[in-house]
Amino acid sequence: MRSVPEPVKVIAQADSQPVNLLGLDREAMQAFFVELGEKPFRASQLMQWIHQRSTTNFDEMTNFSKVLRNRLRALTEIRLPEIVTEQISADGTRKWLMQLSCGNRIETVFIPEEGRNTLCVSSQVGCALNCSFCSTARQGFNRNLDAAEIIGQLWLAEQFIGNKQRVTNVVLMGMGEPLLNFDNVVRAMNLMRDDFSFGLSKRRVTLSTAGVIPGIDKLGKVCDVALAVSLHAPNNTIRDELVPINRKYPIEQLMQACIRYIGDKKRRKVTFEYVMLDGINDSVNDARQLARLLQGVPSKVNLIPFNAFPGAPYQCSSRNAMMRFQDQLHHHGIVTMTRKTRGDDIDAACGQLIGRVSDRTRRSIRMAREA
Ligand code: SAH
Q: Is there a single domain that holds both residue 335 and residue 200?
């Protein structure tokens, strides 16, 4: 007997609700066509229509017979999020507020730079991790995005920026913790990487995590992308406060997971993000401790100036403190850059994405009371 578990699922879904082809990666798309009794190569053709020729209209898919087009129309759909607003920053950064089904909204940010155009993509509506310096955390967690809603952000961004520009890099650094929405994120990243869809190389797709260790290990086995880890502290005492998931997955174990991810040098290094918080994690001593922690982990450090938001309990470190911190890391031979803040005039900078999530946990009210 043939073993084809995936396609059965796809057709079963089609009975009740049309399958959204936008979010099927090559494996799922092939399984879908096989289940329809079609040849698997139809999958790459359809992916090209959707992701490279940017069509959602089955009538334009001229290398499919009329019969097949009608079947696809009856069983499936190609459905995208809706763009509600677009804001353009003085520095050219663009932020889109996108409407999903069930009234949920997310934000996606496009950052044009010399030689590269980066898209910052959301993976969840809200976030459950409650990092103390992040405005998305204030919203609480609402739901995971499905693969179509994740890849849909890239599809729409390419439409909006026009023919003259392309997205060259994608970072999963928008709203949410991507490793807590593992399957959907991997499917979407497969589409980002696939030559029949967006064709981005493994160094141009970066997943950023707050440190979900089992997710890092699983990712290393199934998907080849760059890894960024939101470290933000040189020890458990500080990190437990800033990134509460550290209490579950402490810093030494996180370093070991990073080393495993780099593995047999298949991947070059891990990027550590470090948000600069005045008087909290920015002393020269902190820098020394960080340097010690990173000894033996092929890495580079991105220092991120803290972006304030209403009610934020922190302030950004002074320029001097950031320079001293960076110098100390350089002194210990650690490649370090300070990230330029982009799009803060439209609240598009790191940690400022809100998307007007309904706060199911009433976390912001609780926090206001506590304050
Ligand atoms: N959950 C994932 C991805 C989302 S956050 C993660 O934690 O990596 C993307 C990056 O923005 C993370 O490094 C996060 O720590 C940082 N960030 C969050 N709030 C910020 C703020 N207010 N100022 C600067 N960076 C912030």
A: yes
Report whether pLDDT(371) > 60. Answer: no
Q: Across-strand partners of 110?
A: 94, 119
For the question of residue 350 being annotated catalytic, the response is yes
pLDDT tens sequence across 245-261: 999 999 999 999 999 99
pLDDT value at position 193? 98
Does the structure show a pLDDT above 80 at 354?
no
Tell me the pLDDT tens digit for each residue of 292-308: 999 989 999 999 999 98
CATH number at residue 63: 1.10.150.530
- Ligand 1 centroid to Cα of residue 32, in Å, is 37
Q: What range does the domain containing 277 cover?
A: 82-370
Do 120 and 155 sit in the same domain of this protein? yes
If asked whether residues 61 and 164 sit together in one domain, one would say no
Q: Indicate if 69 and 90 belong to the same structural domain.
A: no
Q: Which amino acid is at 314?
A: Y
Q: Is 210 exposed, middle or buried (0-12, 13-18, 19+ CB in 10 A)?
A: buried
271 lines ligand 1 (CB under 6 A): no
- Which of 273, 280, 339, 352 best tests ligand 1's pocket when mutated (most atoms within 8 Å of CB)? 273
Ligand 1 close to Cβ of residue 210 (< 6 A): yes
Do the Cβ atoms of 173 and 208 come closer than 8 Å?
Answer: yes
Does 64 share its domain with 87? no
Residue 357 pLDDT > 50, yes or no? no
d(CA 258, CA 251): 10
Number of domains in the chain: 2
Say yes or no: 66 and 210 in one domain.
no
Please tell me which residue in 77, 241, 350, 370 is annotated as part of the active site. 350
Atom in ligand 1 nearest the alpha carbon of residue 352: 22
Measured from the CA of 127, which atom of ligand 1 is nearest?
1
pLDDT greater at residue 51 or residue 105: 51
Do 212 and 178 contact (CB within 8 A), yes or no? no
**pLDDT for residue 16:** 64
